[in-house]
Structures are given as structure tokens and as C-alpha cells.
């Protein structure tokens, strides 16, 4: 029973929110869905910014996949690592060969199978596409979390799938009862 009360030090399935003044313009007001975090490192998909120059239909056409029933949604800027690599964050009601379950909250797929399923009308009920990812090496995210820069909150389907992109950052803080307008851009010392 005691072991069940100990929580994991890892943040898989949580949302990572950039604090004001994070110091890296690539991550200002970022919202990152953490899909993997363990002793070997972390991987997350940015869900707070979209890429203006490409749409989901553009991605399908580039991969010679017929648009079919797929809506032409925005493609998210998943992160600065491998910006041409695609991912789909989605509800757990669809599963492909490469799909990983993210802490029982949502799933992540990274092959064309999920794109074909979406276009064919047999894909997940909720989904969002992204190009690139945010990645941290062994211990890197853990060290960053000890400094001013990131704040984590529990993963939330409403923020992920139902909140407009431009409101996700504020909505993430609101989940924790925080008004981000009151946050300082600098960290203090105690």
C-alpha cells in the first residue's frame, strides 16, 4: 500500500507550460504535451502554436494521401527538433502499430497509418497534427524544472482537443488556479 502512495517523479501525460521570461524565444507561451518522460529523457509535442504556411491537406497531398474525409485543420509546431517529422496526438479510440499510449490520457502516432485512417474516416475521434517535437536528453528536463522556465499541470483532454490554440496557455495555468498575467518574468531566490 505504501508503494502505491508514492507518485512518479516523471511527467508523462502532463502539460508543460512556459513561464513568462523563459529565456528562449522558441518556447515563449509554449504548451507542450509530454508524451514520454523517464530516466532517459523526455519528448513532447507543442500544442500552443500552429504553422501558418501549411495545412493538414497540404501534408496529406505531400504524402500522396487522398484528402477523403479529413478536415483541413491547422498543423501545430510540435517543436524545434526534426521539424519535418510528423506526429498526431489523438484520443485513445484508435490504435496503430506505432501508437503509444500516453499515461492513459491520449495517444501519439508517428506514421502515415494514422493519416490514412483520418482521411478514410476511420481514425481517432479527436486528433491534432504536428511537425517536429521538443526533446530533452537524460536529466535535462529535470534540471530545467528546478529553474525558472517551466510549469507542469495535469494533462487535460479539454485543453488538448477542445480549447482554441491561442487560449491553451492561459487554460493550462487556469487548471492550476493561476492567472498568468500575475506571473513574473524572473525567478526569485530563497
Automatic annotation (TrEMBL):
<dbReference type="Pfam" id="PF02622">
    <property type="entry name" value="DUF179"/>
</dbReference>
<dbReference type="InterPro" id="IPR003774">
    <property type="entry name" value="AlgH-like"/>
</dbReference>
<comment type="similarity">
    <text>Belongs to the UPF0301 (AlgH) family.</text>
</comment>
<dbReference type="GO" id="GO:0005829">
    <property type="term" value="C:cytosol"/>
</dbReference>
<protein>
    <recommendedName>
        <fullName>UPF0301 protein SAMN06297144_2097</fullName>
    </recommendedName>
</protein>
